[in-house]
Amino acid sequence: MENDTFMSHFDLTLYVNIGYYRYPAFVLCFLLFAFIVTANLVIILIISRESTLHEPMYIFIACLSFNSLYGSTGFFPRFLMDLLSDSHLISRPACFTQIYVIYTYASNEMTILGIMAYDRYVAVCHPLHYHNKVTPRAAYVLAALAWICPAFTVGTCLYLAIRLPLCGNEILKVYCAIWNIAKLSCVTTSINNITGLFVATITVFLPLTYVLYTYFRILLVCRKSSSECKSKVLQTCLPHTISFVSYSVTAFCDIALSRINVEKLNPFFAAILSLEFVMIPPVLNPLVYGLKLPEIRRHIFRMLSWLKTTS
Prior knowledge:
This protein is an all-alpha fold and 311 residues long. The protein is built from 10 helices and 3 strands, in the order βααβαααβααααα. It has helices spanning 22-49, 56-84, 92-125, 130-133, 136-162, 178-182, 190-223, 227-259, 267-292, 294-310, and strands at residues 9-12, 89-91, 170-171.
């Protein structure tokens, strides 16, 4: 008989029985996944191939697109399988692997947006020192830190979650989450909660606070600038602002969903809220940066025209 404290499988119970509508839903989500992969690959390829784009701002944009690919490929294949399946059991190793990928994706997104805010802050508030402070070498170091810190902090939280003895296997979500697994614990989770709060402070609240601070300073500079300067600042900062706001709102929805009684909500509505932060930013980011930044947009149109002439 299986030990109740060691679950070999978890049951994802938030999936709604939509009958034959599962097939259109599968096609729609598959097309969404295909668009995310294609659009973000285009951004990465253009930035990596064009030497004129080997600048800190574009390096950070490439990091953002790579993170979108990382998070999406860690979520969508399993999600697409579950859409067509009547059973939503996931093995313990697969569950914890999914947790690591989704949580590092979420943390990476915020830390990358944080270093992008630093880049914009220096460019607007200290333009004469920009090329000295934000060199390509410094950009690569900051990008590496933006990935390394979440990798270790999320790994620590995951290690503590794996060790918990569990008294159930039902996860009220469409993917595995640390908080939902902690709620299944047979013992107190105070150490997990403290560690989780510390990790959230490092990877979420500190970058969030810093982004808000940098934009406050940028707004102060813009107040004293000419209309031409304001227009230029808006052009360079708007894509980052859109990415930051969209990610913050979608992440907040998922966090709030984990803290309320989901059983009282409409299951379909709850499922949509839990999917927003793994779907909307990976779709929105390449559109925002590909269409709003003229350097990237010009190379995209050049690539499309080349493909049209060769086909």
